[in-house]
Amino acid sequence: MAFKDFPLAVSAIVIDLDGTLLHTAPELAESANRMLRDMGRPAVSQELLMSYIGNGISWLVKRALTGDMHAEPDVALYDQALPIFEKHYTELLLQSKPFAGVVEGLDAMKAAGYRLGCITNKLARYTEPLLKGIGLAGYFEIVLSGDTLPEKKPHPMPLLHAAEFFGVPVEQVLLIGDSLNDTVAARAAGCPVFCVPYGYNHGEPVDGLDLDAVIDSLPAAMKLIKRV
């Protein structure tokens, strides 16, 4: 169900991390290529690696090893690769930067009285130090990582959990993301969803997704919503 009556009545806003709040692709791609180099395997282009971002690090490592969106690498190869990737990503983690307009958008949302959360498929051991180290942690009342709950996006559980945490109907929770995972999760939960066009939607444009609006930056969301 699409939400068509703008401005949408919203109490809380939950925002995706990779590709929406932060430009993490350079660090993720570099970590994957350092992993491949350490294993004596050829490098992969950042553009291709960017198309693999969004389903968590396990998915990214598998895609880097196989060069295929669906193939499964040998289990022993994957078990060897994952800790190598994790080592490099831990070293590069805090080099990521917010996208243009992110801080201004968060400030405007906070000033307008919206309650804020972050919902990501990134593991908590990366999410929490990343938000804290870049100075964004203080904006969010709740942070749900890929391993916080039994399910992650595109499952609706994180959105339903956030609505319960905020104590508001899920249809008053706006999700801002950058990918199919976000739109599928929002529709399954029954909440509105906006997407930014600059993120990591597996290399595909977001305007073909089932969403309520494409916004060029976080501040652009403000004219499309009203607080309830």
Structure description:
Helix content is 39%, strand content 14%. The mean pLDDT is 95. The protein has 2 domains: 8-23 and 96-227, Rossmann fold (3-Layer(aba) Sandwich), CATH 3.40.50; 25-95, Orthogonal Bundle (DNA polymerase, domain 1), CATH 1.10.150. Helix 8 links the parallel strand 7 and strand 8. It is built from 8 helices and 10 strands. With 228 residues, the protein is of the alpha/beta class.
Number of domains: 2
Shape: elongated
- Tally the helices: what do you get? 8
CATH topology of the largest domain: Rossmann fold
DSSP strand tally: 10
Instruction: Name the average pLDDT.
Output: 95
What's the arrangement of strands in the largest beta sheet? 6-5-2-7-8-9
**CATH architecture call of the largest domain:** 3-Layer(aba) Sandwich
Our Rg estimate from Cα atoms comes to: 17 Å
Q: What is the first-to-last residue Cα distance?
A: 20 Å
